[in-house]
Amino acid sequence: MSTDIGPAAAPRATRKEWLGLLVLGLPTMLMAMDLTVLHLALPALTEDLRPSNTELLWIVDIYGFLTAGLLITMGSIGDRIGRRRLLLIGAAVFGVASVLSGFAVNPAMLIASRALLGIAGSTLMPSTLSLIRVMFQDPKQQGAAIGAWTGFFGLGTVIGPLVGGTFLQLFWWGSVFLIGVPVMLLLIVCGPILLPEYRDESVRRPDFLSAVLSIVGILGLIYGLKRITADGLSLESGGAIVIGLVMGALFISRQRRLEQPLVELSLFRSKLFGSALGMLLLATLLNSAAQFFVMQYLQLAHGLSAIHAGLWSLPTTLAVMVGAMAAPALASRMKLSTLLAGGLAVTAVGMLLLAQVSDPSDLYVVVVGAAVIGLGLGPMISLGTGLIVGAAPPERAGAASAMAATGTDLGASLGIAVIGSVGFAVYRTNLADNLPNGLPTGVAETAKQTLAAAVDVAGTLPAAEGSRLLSVAREAFVHGLQTTALVGAVIAALLAVGAATLLRSARMPGPPPAAEAEVEVEDAEKSPAAVDN
To answer: Do the domain assignments include residue 394?
Structure first.
């Protein structure tokens, strides 16, 4: 009698792998915290370093631009040199860059150190997620591990305002960057003990020229747009935009010729894939722009302390989590396009509520509007990556996932760079038209840079004169907030229409068949070059 027990089951994770998951979750939580603590620190660092509005925007978004531009490249490097090795190198660089950021003495140094943080950050996300897939090969355990990894990100989003506000209340603004140092030290010490090594010898050398072309193209375009909003169209701004467009065209041309391109342009042959990726990018753009202005409103316009601003931002964070956590259950009960369109329509309503703010004292309007925006964006944030993967052919799921991560990082930075530039342009124009008479020229020019600069310089003036400057500066900022909210409402409404029409055939990717999963595991086990514990 013969017995057929079928293919061998995937190996189950042990206590070592679960402890390794905890180690991988810490940098993920830290990256989520960084999204909120920097916004909390902006008023304090602006008062100390006095950056211009353009420098302030670069301080905020250079991290995201470089992370997005290098994400796919770093994934390829990790496959070649070892994902654990790349993770540990990135952790060391991230720790050094955090120290440099925390002790920056001028805007240029902070921008440079934030750029280094972006390069290091681009190694963390692909390395952590890919190692989880190696460590947890049992399908059920892998699903639970990825869910826990996502939970770390959500936890970082929740505690970020509280931890950041507390640090800013007790220490100087640079302390928020030093939060990451002990986390990275723990990763460097525990990583070699708890994490396996993984490499793929079949992966070719990544195309660094493509990475350079993409980053230069993006930064050139954004720099040109920022200069236009700051000083109007000029030879400098126009030249930067032309350079950006040329680099972008060269990048696309090169991808078409490469056998293993950095970005698989063939994915965009699917209109559904392009639509889904574009909507995720724009959704994160709206989220980052709203957070950027709301956090400054809470501290600079309304006058809250950093810790109280963090507490008042919690309703928005919780609303995003409610929308994100409810989305998978709702997706099983209703059409995906209807769910996403409804969420984006709610976002448009939240933006319109935010546009109703007419005075620096309208705290509750701002908090409710921001929470409604977060609730509406939750489904897209939660389901966006799965939607994009589901729109791609199964054999391109990995490339589609990388594109989704890149789009998310790029969207977050573009929200601050583009919409933030519009808001600052409105602030500067409105303030110039309403400045009190008799202000010294230097004071007036400083106040036009940012609201934080206006608040700072107002404290150096006689009480009555400083109060008048502070009042008109805060009103000018409210006008900028109103304008950006109206722009956001239009974008969200268009996205809602697009989701209802362009995503009608969208679906979420299902789990792979058990047989396929077992074959993949067996292949990994047979390859001694792939996994080295």
So the answer is: yes
